[in-house]
Amino acid sequence: MTATAAGPGSTGTGRRAERFARPVLLAFLLVAAADLAGLLAGAETVHLVAKPLLMPLLAGYAALRGAPRLLVAALLFGWGGDVFLLADDDLAFLVGMGSFAVGHVCYLTLFGRGEGRGRAPAPLVTGAGYAVVLVVFLVLIWPDLPADLRIPLTGYSLLLTAMAWRAGVFGPYAAAGGALFLLSDALIATGIAEWPQAPAPDFWVMLTYIAAQALLTLGVLTQDTTKDTPGV
Questions:
Q1: Conformation bin of residue 66: beta by default, left when phi > 0, alpha when psi is -120 to 50
Q2: Burial 88-116 (b: 16+ CB within 10 A, else e)
Q3: Rg of the Cα trace of the chain?
Q4: Which residues of the chain register pLDDT less than 50?
Q5: Dist CA 184 CA 130 (whole Å)
Q6: Amino acid 122: pLDDT
Q7: H-helix or E-strand spanning residue 186
Q8: Which of 14, 15, 110, 150 has the most CB atoms within 10 Å of its CB?
Q9: In whole angstroms, what is the distance from residue 72 CA to residue 40 CA?
Q10: What's the pLDDT score for residue 230?
């Protein structure tokens, strides 16, 4: 519940919460920098410690800023995906992908509610462009994917592409975040397919992923139209 929704008596509490938000955001940025530097340096221990801290810090920042609950939930399901994907195990990978998928459902629900409160819908031409990119990518990568991952990855890719398209409902920051999320997961997929990789591939995956979640959060916080509705 935001200060606006809760009434005049909560204004002071809301302002105190926003003061705490700045240190939490700073902590998120510092952990993100440490994680990326660790990946570049090949310091796996730094990555193992830093990665699980990223989304809880970003979710805490969003909550302190009075973000919709669906945004906080999406970030926390992203945290679940981050943790499971640290394990080098096929089952953990599928569970992590499922956690990310639930996070995308949270995003899609939030974007749908934004449209329901008067925001312009995502342009159909953008959706068509995303659809073409998805089909071409799947056709190219399909033969190189492990057989048992083809169907789960295809379903996940459809959900992720829909999220990336609908993110534009919350403005250019969120739209850029959705596109970067799609790029980050495409980089993961090319690694699974054993396509040629750029130097330090994990660095690029995490850079685009961190930027994606941060921009989605920024987009929702700066253009949120649900703050007059408690509990959204």
A1: left
A2: eeeeebbbbbbbbbbbbbbbbbbbebbee
A3: 18
A4: 1-9, 225-231
A5: 15
A6: 78
A7: helix 171-192
A8: 110
A9: 29
A10: 39
Residue 31: CB partners within 8 Å, gap ≥ 6? Answer: 50, 53, 54, 57
Asked if 214 and 62 touch (Cβ cutoff 8 Å), the reply is no
Q: Kindly report the pTM of this predicted structure.
A: 0.88
HSE-CB for 168 with a 13 A CA cutoff: 15
Report how far residue 56's alpha carbon sits from residue 75's, in angstroms, rounded to the nearest whole number.
Answer: 7
Query: How many angstroms separate the CA atoms of 55 and 116, rounded?
Result: 28
Instruction: Give the pLDDT of residue 11.
Output: 57
Structure tokens at 15: 């302002």
d(CA 104, CA 118): 22
pLDDT value, residue 89: 87
Task: Tell me phi and psi for residue 87, to 5 degrees.
Answer: -80, 140
Q: Residue 166 burial (CB < 10 Å; 0-12/13-18/19+)?
A: buried
User: Which residue pairs, CB below 8 angstroms and at least 24 apart, start in 173-177?
Assistant: 173/215, 173/216, 173/218, 173/219, 173/222, 173/223, 174/215, 174/216, 174/218, 174/219, 174/220, 174/223, 175/219, 176/215, 176/219, 177/211, 177/212, 177/213, 177/214, 177/215, 177/216, 177/217, 177/218, 177/219
The single residue listed with the structure tokens 């819908």 is 121
